[in-house]
Write a structure and sequence with these properties.
By secondary structure, the chain is mainly α. It contains six helices and no strands. The longest helix has about 55 residues, at about 130-185.
């Protein structure tokens, strides 16, 4: 990311200083707003993908139980020990993947500008104050919201990643179990 700071004596610094805070605020404000919107989109994306992990894990666990029912139905077929072990591991991994998906959807305390603070903004003294000061206060509030959102979205993202990795491991374990079952059946 480019360095947004300028040093004293530079042309950009002098122009911003002469134009007042509005010059910088008019540039930084949209950046902050776009970052907030992007972070809200990340939160939604993590939660939607977390639901997908929960759903696919649930479906695959159901299929796993169906496979177990079919295999144990035959009186002559004995489930190979490695297949049984892989089925148990697969079941555990699918359950853990679903739990990680649930964690990625856990309602966390995202920061919002408090209503009491918004009410302060409409008091006559602040409402009629300078636009530069108001823009800075809004930006400070937005940056605080953004910082908290990024921190919480990082947690959601890690839970989602863990869920996806666990789900892949569960599918591999299930494939190994099916492989042993097919080898035994032939």
């Amino acid at each position: 990311m480019p360095d947004l700071e300028t040093t004293e004596g530079s042309t950009a610094y002098s122009e911003a200083e002469n134009a007042g805070e509005t010059a910088g605020g008019s540039v930084y404000g949209p950046l902050i707003k776009s970052q907030l919107a992007e972070e809200a989109g990340r939160k939604t994306s993590f939660e939607q993908r977390g639901v997908a992990v929960i759903t696919t894990s649930g479906v695959l666990v159901s299929l796993l139980f169906g496979l177990a029912a079919v295999v144990t139905k035959s009186d002559t077929f004995v489930l190979p020990i490695p297949a049984k072990n892989f089925l148990v591991v697969s079941l555990i991994l699918f359950v853990l993947a679903a739990v990680a998906g649930i964690i990625s959807n856990w309602p966390l305390r995202y920061l919002q500008v408090e209503v009491s603070e918004l009410k302060r903004f409409i008091e006559p003294k602040l409402w009629s104050g300078s636009s530069e000061t108001a823009a800075r206060r809004v930006a400070e509030a937005q940056v605080a919201v953004l910082a908290r959102s990024r921190k919480l979205n990082l947690l959601k993202g890690r839970a989602l990643l863990a869920g996806m990795i666990l789900e892949v491991a569960a599918v591999v374990s299930l494939a190994m179990a099916v492989g042993f079952i097919l080898l035994k059946a032939t």
